[in-house]
Amino acid sequence: MTDTLLRKPFAMRASHRLTLLTLCLTVMIAHVDTFIVNLGARVIGDHFGAGVDELQWIVDCYNLVYAVSLLTGGMLADIYGRRRILMSGALIFILASLLCAAAPSAQMLILGRALTGAGGALMIPASLAIIRVVWDQPGERARALGVWAAYNGVAMALGPSLGGMLIPWFGWRSIFLVVVPFGLLALIMAGWTIAESSDPRRRPFDAAAQFFGALALGGLTYAAISAQSAPRAMTAALTVTVLSAALFIAIERKKGSDALVSPDIFTIKQFRAAMIATLGMTFGGYGMVFVLPLAWQSSGRLDAAASAAALLPMSLVFIVVSPLSGALSEKLGIRVVTSGGVTLMGIGLLLIGLGGLQSNIATAGFGLAMTGLGLGLAAGPLSAMAVGHVTTARAGTAAALINVARISGATIGVAVLGACYAAPGGGEHGLWLSMIAGSLVQFAGAGVAWMVTREKTQHVHI
């Protein structure tokens, strides 16, 4: 009897480790694909004779469809089962990657990229919701989320490196095939290591809210994508976003507990803080990753491969620090770790702006390491704040919303910081202006999140 009791906790921990590995594989394949495609855009354009507009859509349609599908993915996970939806997303992602690899035209490649975005929108919220269900103790959940978030850094570091090795030897089609074995492994392991869970109340599928929510998110993302190249399209997309968001809110207020996004979720201080800080974090972080390599390559300071290598300090520090963020949250408090991490990212961006185009880029390297430190501290705990203060029945919806904040901040950050860089004609002045803008948004997000969570609040059951 005693031996059984002693062995059971170890067996449970081993089972949880396999579950976490499966979930980490899903987040890795969803994000590594994006970083690889960015590096292969020029080669793909040469192969198809594609113009800048087509290349932009090859890169951006993933984010667009991902953003549009997030709320649907989160609700489907809650209603029909998180494991089932995660496995469906992985299967769609695998098939879409094969379509991309075999694409006979740029248009077919764009379609394949759109389908991978849909697969990612099913996988990521379901993955995050499963962590909320499996690790029901806040401390254990925070540590699991720290490891889970670290795999985004693995994808950030692995993507450019894989692309740099594969494209010269095996051609651009190989960058889509490389994720297929990892996807198959995740699919097999999910059926073996993850227990099914869902909302036992089975909320009705809210078609009207799904439509207007998707239209609002799609309009916002499209506006960010077209901000520099098509200002009229951007204005039209923003108009659609505002009108769709208003209709979405009006519909949800009437639905009460059956709403796709219950209004009560935004009364939770920790959830609001996580949304605000995540917006600031990805606005500056993703905007910087877009602008800095552009500045290096435009000035002739570094080529594409050297730019990818120069960004490694951020990814490597992120990978090292992120698994430790849960333990630090328990010791220092989640409020300190999240707001402090986003603040460190803001300081890192200022250092990058100061030293990014100097003859010696050591200052920028230090800024990148500090940005990775802040990102590693904040990313996992912010997800923990978002999903840890709602009931498990709403875990998929909460996971979808925190990813809405992430992708919205990222797409708007790329557009705004890109515009700031271009406004003075690029160069040192453009880099400095864009990094100031990014850091100010990060400081503001960290400050608001700190103030929002200054009083201890109880979990709200919705």
What does this protein look like?
This protein is mainly alpha-helical and 462 residues long. It has 2 domains: 1-206, Growth Hormone, Chain: A (Up-down Bundle); 262-462, MFS general substrate transporter like domains (Growth Hormone, Chain: A, Up-down Bundle). It is built from 17 helices and no strands. The protein has helices spanning 2-48, 52-80, 82-102, 106-134, 138-170, 174-177, 179-193, 207-225, 231-255, 269-298, 304-310, 312-321, 325-332, 334-355, 362-388, 395-422, 427-452. Helix 2 packs antiparallel against helix 8, helix 3 (82-102) packs antiparallel against helix 4 (106-134) and helix 14 runs antiparallel to helix 17. It is a multi-pass membrane protein. InterPro entries: MFS (IPR011701), MFS_dom (IPR020846), MFS_trans_sf (IPR036259), Sugar_transporter_CS (IPR005829). It is found in: Membrane.
